[in-house]
Design goal:
mainly beta; 4-stranded antiparallel beta sheet; 15 strands; 54% strand
Length: 169
């Protein structure tokens, strides 16, 4: 396994998300203590790294980055009603020419508040020549009804108690 991540479903079940070169993108259920893999849930035949999953309003969304090393690329997303699939065809999460605003998918963070649920895309902005100075892009997603979109980066705020994200002027 390579480039691993973790996803905790709404029921508390933990999953390992990882690239399995040359086969694809895997999802495996973890034991209750998170220390071992109980079983494989799904193999998605996409060559992705930086995989992340979120469950939002009854739909599973998975995002990933093509295998371009430290170089950014147009990240994609797929959807399914179940982690086992079937999964949709990949779609862009941002305008392809932006190469996901120079970032690579890393994690999806769901913030459930009293008024709203916000999903934050967390991406790495790698600087291979100065890795110690690599940065991050965190932005709330436009998500719902089987669609996911990463808007152009700009300042924003999040009220954790209410779950409401707001773009700042």
């Amino acid at each position: 396994s390579r480039d691993i991540g973790q996803f905790i479903d709404d029921d508390g079940t933990a999953y390992l998300i990882f690239e399995d070169r040359p086969f694809g993108f895997r999802i495996a259920r973890l034991s209750d203590d998170y220390l071992s893999v109980e079983r494989e849930v799904c193999l998605i035949p996409l060559h992705w790294e930086g995989g992340a999953v979120v469950h939002y309003e009854g739909v599973y969304y998975a995002i990933g980055s093509a295998l371009t090393g430290w170089n950014p690329n147009p990240n994609k997303y797929i959807t399914a009603q179940s982690l086992q699939g079937p999964w949709s065809d990949p779609k862009d999460i941002a305008p392809p020419a932006t190469k996901t605003y120079g970032s690579q998918s890393s994690m999806l963070l769901k913030v459930v508040g009293e008024k709203a649920t916000t999903v934050i895309s967390m991406g790495d902005i790698w600087k291979p020549e100065a890795q110690w100075d690599s940065r991050y892009l965190w932005m709330p997603l436009e998500i719902g009804n089987g669609r996911l979109w990463l808007p152009k980066p700009k300042p924003w705020s999040l009220d954790v108690k209410s779950g409401v994200a707001a773009m700042l002027p």
